Amino acid sequence: MRAIVFLLVSCVWLLQTANASLFSSGAGQEDFLPVDQAFELHIEPQDDGGTLVRWDIAPGYYLYQERLSFGGLDPEQQPTLPPGEPYTDEFFGDSQIYRGSLEVLIPQTDAGAIELGWQGCADAGLCYPPQSRQVSLDGAGPGAPAEAVQADDEALVSGLQQQTLAVSLLIFFGLGLLLAFAPCSLPMLPILAGIVVGSGATPRRGFALAIAYVVSMALVYAALGVVAALLGANLQGVLMQPWLIASFAGLFILLSLPMFGFFELQLPAGLRDRLENAGRKRKGGSLTGASVLGVLSGLLVGPCMTAPLAAALLYIAQSGNAVHGGLVLFVLGLGIGTPLVLLVTLGNRFLPKPGAWMDRVKVSFGFLFLIAALYVLRPLLSDALWVGLWGALLVVVASGLLQLARQQQKHQALSKAVASLAGIWGVAMLLGAAGGAHDPFRPLAVFTGGVATVQAGEVKDGYVGFSEPAVLDSELAAAKAAGQWVLVDYYADWCVSCKVMEKEVFGNAEVQAALENVRILRPDVTVTNAASRELLSRYKVMGPPTLLWIGPDGVERRSQRITGEVDAKQFLSNWNTTMERG
Predict the structure, then answer these.
(1) In total, how many domains does the chain have?
(2) Which of 79, 245, 387, 486 could cross-link with 550 by S-S, CB 3.0 to 4.6 Å?
(3) How many angstroms separate the CA atoms of 444 and 427, rounded?
(4) Whether residue 120 has pLDDT greater than 60
(5) Residue pair 223/18 in contact by the 8 Å Cβ criterion
(6) Are residues 289 and 167 both part of a single domain?
(7) Which residue has the higher pLDDT, 71 or 384?
């Protein structure tokens, strides 16, 4: 337990040190003006029927030229913006900004109202969320702020900026509870279960082991998130190095072998004797071991890119408040781990007394460790190899179930039936993998429909893939000149959710029909380098999968940004809403 306390204190000290260095000038979050005071909006009707829109910008604040939008006006009616001041920052790169005041004349138009959009920042380090407001052009004034039209990550960033720390922590703990059931978080279950149940710990000891695991995982995840946000790095890209993934997958495989009785993991005799003497009165596994595996889990099988994670990283990057952001990430990690703790501790209470069944449970956890290894390796595997490895695992499971059926008196028929189904499906997956199958639920489809069937779930040609920022610039300029909508789909080879969406969303016939006249750009950020960092920072993207809608006017519809994995139905709903808002 002392190791956990030391790790906690060290991380808090590190976050405080980072925060102090970033705010050495003494500026704090409470010193920033409310957004309506920092950028005061005025609407002034003109004698010629036009409308003058004026922002009075407070000293120390500025507006971005490229974030100004005038929804409801046709492309030819868009107002001419005055030249701005050249500026370079970490949020938008090279930009044009306005200080002091900005006046924009909207010529006379038939539109009764428009939706103004703008975004600004403070020199002290805070970048406000994008703002929007419905404006009447008949002289009725600026009106009320537009109804909350923010993407999920934007709304969460606004909450972090406006709510107290206690409320923010409560919200993100709840979000963590929801993320615990996401597919990318499930591999943590066999690891934690193997520690608690597999060690034969008492309920009290099991609870301590689970807490050690979850706290260590949350601390590492928070620290990595803070460092990545402050440095502008792609958190996923940093961790998804092939050698690192393969090493940890190998570790999970190694941990599974003792469960099958191949050998016992033992320390050198001298060290083992000392540890046994020191902990002779304790039952169950080691708190240090649980903490170490929690660290490994935080490194590899933490939550994938989601709106809550993107919001926390975005908040840290914009405000520089490492302590606040780090605490939010830590509590998010605790929320993710809480259902796992309850499952392996409360669930352990309902297990029967120790006996021969413990060996069968031990073998079950061995298979769970192998499943965790497969999940970890997924970014490195081709679709066919992924299907083949699952097939091989099912065949081995079937063999184990048949052996179990011979040893037990009860439920022999059920065990044999399950073993037969697992074995048949495993063999089908192996055969399908040999033919290039990519869908584990339809492993033999490659042999039934020819080439057309094989490609039914694949993305058709029609997108532009690139890894250089210059290509993004040229494609966006061409789309704007053609008055064309653009979908920017951030992608990486190690992004499992990207591959899922590639088949289930972009391979969907309805989606393909809806995007027929849309220019699809796919920035590839697989490799973490200067080019990928610039591609991500261009629109403040925290990692893939992230999808952006760029209108014919060249402005992103920020409220419609998609962060994380969605299905075809959600994607089409998002696109239809984007078109309605224009």
Answers:
(1) 4
(2) 486
(3) 10
(4) yes
(5) no
(6) yes
(7) 384
